[in-house]
């Protein structure tokens, strides 16, 4: 399960994500749809700590990602970038 709890992220004092709260249960599928620059990739990158969280928390199976070992956590997460390698 992935849980976002009041997550906030900004770049150069410009808010990108504001108080995002969302739970995706194990076995569920979710799609993020939105315009370019609205924060979809930022949200996903925060799960495996490629982007830092300014405020709030993200839990993986009940444990905060801030308390997890980066390498061990990333071995449990699949991640595909959206560049040309996905849909050539």
Short description:
With 88 residues, this protein is of the alpha+beta class. Helix content is 15%, strand content 33%. Strands 2-1-3-4 form a four-stranded antiparallel sheet, with helices on one face.
CATH homologous superfamily? Answer: P-loop containing nucleotide triphosphate hydrolases
Sheet with the most strands, sense and barrel status: 4 strands, antiparallel
Shape: globular
Neighbour order of strands in the largest sheet: 2-1-3-4
Helix content: 10-25%
- Per CATH, the class reads Alpha Beta
Portion in beta strands: 25-35%
Examine the secondary-structure arrangement and name the CATH architecture: 3-Layer(aba) Sandwich
Task: Round the Cα radius of gyration to an integer and report it.
Answer: 13 Å
Average pLDDT number? 89
Order of H and E elements: EEHEEH
Structure description:
- This protein is of the alpha+beta class and 88 residues long.
- The chain has one domain (2-71): Rossmann fold.
- It has two helices and four strands; from the N terminus they run E-E-H-E-E-H.
- The protein has helices spanning 40-47, 70-74; strands spanning 2-11, 14-24, 55-60, 63-64.
- A four-stranded antiparallel beta sheet has the order 2-1-3-4, covered by helices on one side.
- The termini are far apart.
- The model has no long low-confidence stretch (mean pLDDT 89).
What order do the helices and strands come in, and which of them pair?
Elements: E1 2-11, E2 14-24, H1 40-47, E3 55-60, E4 63-64, H2 70-74
Antiparallel strand pairs: 1-2, 1-3, 3-4
């Amino acid at each position: 399960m992935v849980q976002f709890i009041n997550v906030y992220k900004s770049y150069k004092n410009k808010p990108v994500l504001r108080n995002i709260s969302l739970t995706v249960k194990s076995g569920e599928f979710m799609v993020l749809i939105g315009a370019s620059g609205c924060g979809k990739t930022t949200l996903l990158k925060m799960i495996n700590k490629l982007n830092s969280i300014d405020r709030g928390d993200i839990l993986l199976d009940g444990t905060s990602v801030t308390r997890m070992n980066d390498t061990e956590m990333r071995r449990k997460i699949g991640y595909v970038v959206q560049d040309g390698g996905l849909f050539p």
